[in-house]
Each structure stands twice: as structure tokens, then as C-alpha cells.
Amino acid sequence: MFSEKEASWSRYSKQVKVGDIFEAKVSCIEDYGAFVDLRFPDGLYHLHGLIHISEMSWDLVDNVRDILTECDVVRAKVVRVDREKSRISLSIKRLEEDPLLQNLGTVVPQNGLACPNSPNFRGGGNRSRILPLPGLERILEELLQEDGIDDARIRRHGFEKRAVSKDLQIWLSDERPANRRINLLARAGKQMQEIQLITSLDQEGIQRALQRVFERIP
Prior knowledge:
Elements: H1 4-12, E1 21-30, E2 33-39, E3 45-52, E4 73-82, E5 87-91, H2 104-107, E6 121-124, E7 127-130, H3 136-143, E8 149-159, E9 169-172, E10 181-188, E11 191-199, H4 203-216
Parallel strand pairs: 3-5
Antiparallel strand pairs: 1-2, 1-4, 2-3, 4-5, 6-7, 8-11, 9-10, 10-11
């Protein structure tokens, strides 16, 4: 015999697919996220879903209750439907574009220099340079110890609108390698830096090199 919950899932879950956007009412808040009721076209709330704390905002969220309270009504996007476990995972932040996907030219100044007011800018006479984000200098030093990497230097520095993570993050740029040049992007807080590598390695080779570097650095 089906319970009411199982009957609702059986009837309405077929109408839910990844990418759908629902109006949702917060029914319960936990440390790890918020449970919500999904409003269907008939105006009734037939199914439940979870918005994990990591899916609340592109900004760093330490406490779900800083973002939501019970009975709040929000818009949320379906990111996963687990039909075996009758679970729906939703996201608020994915209604907006990931800041990482912003055009780099709108984030980092095109002249290759940090803003003179930035703590990461150091000037003197006609010379200026960008100071590495905390922890990045050691990573660059270790990268230069890798076979196939001839040079690694910071080309540009800028600021994002949001602080997604306090920790230093590094990833490969989507730009295609050209003339032995591959770009990496580094971010900490709202600061972003572009690193240009001169290398004979391809993108997979750079990924393996980064992995080795991260294993060496405590």
C-alpha cells in the first residue's frame, strides 16, 4: 500500500526534470541546507526538495539561516532528480551565471596591471608588478620545477563582484593554448589573477603537473 508521500511522488515526479524552475516554500531548515515544498502549476505543493547550503548563493554561506527562514518563498532550479531514492536537489544560485564564467576581460583590467589602490599592486618609477595572492608564489615556484614548464608569471589582477571562497583556488582557463602559452586563473576572496605559463605541455599535462605540485605542498 502506498503512503500519501509515495503516491504524490509516483504521480508528480514525472513532471520534474533537471533544469526546471519552481516556486518553492521553505518548510524546514537544517545546518546543511533547507527543505522546500515545490509549487506545481495547479497552485498546490506536491513534492519536497532540498537546497543544500552550497547551492544557496555564489557568495560563501556559513549559516543557512543567514539566507533563508521558514515559510520564505523562493525560486529554485532542479539540479538532480534521484528517482530511486525519491529525492530532488535544487539550487538558488544556479539561477544566476557562475562568476567563474564571466568574461575575464570584464573582471581583470586589460592593461595587465592591478588597480594602483589594490594591496596586490606594487609600483616604483616606471616599473610595476603584481604581488601573488597568498600561497600562490610557492605554487608558481613548484610549477617551475616541473619538466616542460619554462616560465610562470602573473599577467593580470582584478576583482570579482562576489567572494565565492576564502581559500586560494586555481583552475585552467578555457582559452585554447597558443604559441606554447597556457593560462591559469587563481582566485581568493574577491581577487583574481591570471597566470601565463610558457610550456611544452598540453592541458592534460598541466593538470597532472598541478596535481603533483599540490601533493608536494603541505
